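FAQ: What does a ligand-bound record look like?

Like this one, built around 6-O-phosphono-beta-D-fructofuranose:
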Amino acid sequence: MRIGLLTSGGDCAGLNAVIRAVTLRAVLGYGFEVWGIREATHGLLKRPVAAERLTPDSVKGILHLGGTILGTTNRGNPFAYPSLDGVPVDRSDEIVAGYHELGLDALIGVGGDGSLAILRRLAQKGGWNLVGIPKTIDNDLGHTERSVGFSTAVDIATEAVDRLHVTAASHNRVMVLEVMGRDAGHIALHAGIAGGADVILIPEIPYDIEKVCAKIEARRASGRNFSLVVVAESVRAVDGEVQTYTDAHGQSRYGGIGRVIAEAIARRTGAESRVTVLGHVQRGGSPVALDRVLAAAFGVHAVDLVAQRRFDRVVGWQNRRVVDLPLAEACAAFKAVDPHDPLVWTARGLGISFGD
Ligand code: F6P
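The answer part, i.e. the structure of the complex:
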């Protein structure tokens, strides 16, 4: 068999570990040919298709590297592709044809909810044999307990909280850390607990700034003159809106809520406050062991699905083992933090405030 492999959507740690696992399993386990497609579906638009043959030799030494050797994009939906005159055009036919031009028997797509949904649409349109692998630092795919990249992002955010702790204590400051996660608060919740934050604000629990300040004042009253606040990028106050801005390409993006909260705290409590926006640092760097293990399990299982001709499925992680489910389920199931999640309870049990 000749299988294609592409990484799509925002990069994250562990993508190269997936590429390596897929290649080793496909070539060594089944004698398949693997073609790595460049820059997600963009590679399938090019003629000749932008792809390179992947072999155990060519994936040597990439396991621990961040990013993706294949490149990726989270722009350019094939069904509404940006054109020079600004009017989106449907280029899905060309992309569908790219798969056939490369003579593929199957495609393994590594992506988050948006990418997997687009790939599935293309697969249905073009008769592709598709298997999905979930990756996203946001960990918001409902069919899997963990997605590739999440654990590394949490580690990076936790380390940031540790570092901010030191400066918060030295200066008697309130340090606010804004983390990514798009519409879900998983990174903030995990890193906040792991780093010993005093306040964690997540989109699933709208916050009241007075309650946030009450927590900071209570710490002061008990002799602790500094506080750490971890904020997910898409949080909003009970009476407020999410903080977004429009970038140079006209895209609406999250960002800036950390500063809004830091200033509100400073105004109300008189405390000196500072804000750190962690941003894309959370996506780079070497994957932690858990992401490498997940990448290995996902890569091997995805190739096994191809070998068994079980297509239109996605791999996932449930109860400490790799599983597979219909791809449509993965695309449909968004996973937010449940406000009654045991981990939220854990945080409350430690005295952490959610500002509610
Ligand atoms: O989905 C991953 C993610 O890093 C989100 O947490 C964040 O909101 C977004 O992507 C940032 O996207 P971009 O790479 O386009 O800045």
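Follow-up question: can I read anything off the structure? Yes, for example: The mean pLDDT is 96.
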